[in-house]
Amino acid sequence: MLPVDKPYRWTSADVIRKIKYAAIRHFGKKNLKVGHAGTLDPLATGILLVCIGPATRQAEELQRSPKEYIAGVSFGATTPSYDLEKDIDARCPLDGVSEAALRAVLPGFIGEQDQVAPLFSAKSVDGVRAYETARRLLREAQREGRAFDPGDVLQSSRINIYDLELLSWHERIVQDFKDDGTGRIRVADVSGEALPTAMIRVACSKGTYIRALARDLGEALGSGAFLSSLRRTKNGGFSIEDAVSLEEVLSGFAGQAGE
Fold this sequence. Notes:
Layout: E1 2-6, H1 12-27, E2 34-36, E3 44-52, H2 59-63, E4 67-75, E5 77-78, E6 90-91, H3 99-105, E7 111-116, E8 124-125, E9 128-129, H4 130-144, E10 156-170, E11 197-204, H5 210-220, E12 225-235, E13 238-239, E14 244-245, H6 246-257
Helix pairs in contact: 1-6
């Protein structure tokens, strides 16, 4: 069981493929099982629990464990994916957006509730991943020269948000993570955007989409919002202090194989 600090702009599947290749070489087993206990979005960093061999049997149980994130929520604009995988597609008023206003609405998001997942997600809809449907709808809208409208595609799911804490408030987007430039996922350029951004600690249940929470917080303030950064800090009993980098994992397998 490896709590890996997933790199920025890597998919969870990218990390698993890389580790599986190294683990197969190290253990000499071509049919070695390698999986993870809970997907992280490509633009998120933090704990990705990688399970190797017999540990894969624990993956489902670990996925049900509570999780914690540090989320950067930027107000005054929206994107189709609710994060920076897609460019800003709409501007929204900021009249009702302030640190005090956000503190006032946060308690209303704590507890059990129904949440509609982002259309650009791995959620399955009639056997098809939601992001596949989303990409098709987006292409059709662009081809026809009209606004992207996801329509009523996803059903709500029951989730639980255990705690929300506003850590800091900024007048511009905050992105303090490391980007080593090796990830294959593109990122929208928002370097010139002066959008107020809140850094929020979120403790929640399995199945909670933090991008959807960002969307809902924007609506609660009469504006729009998207996720400008996300870091998973707790999962399956592990905290971010326990995590190791992908480079450390790969070099560990390579080093032991050469001994």
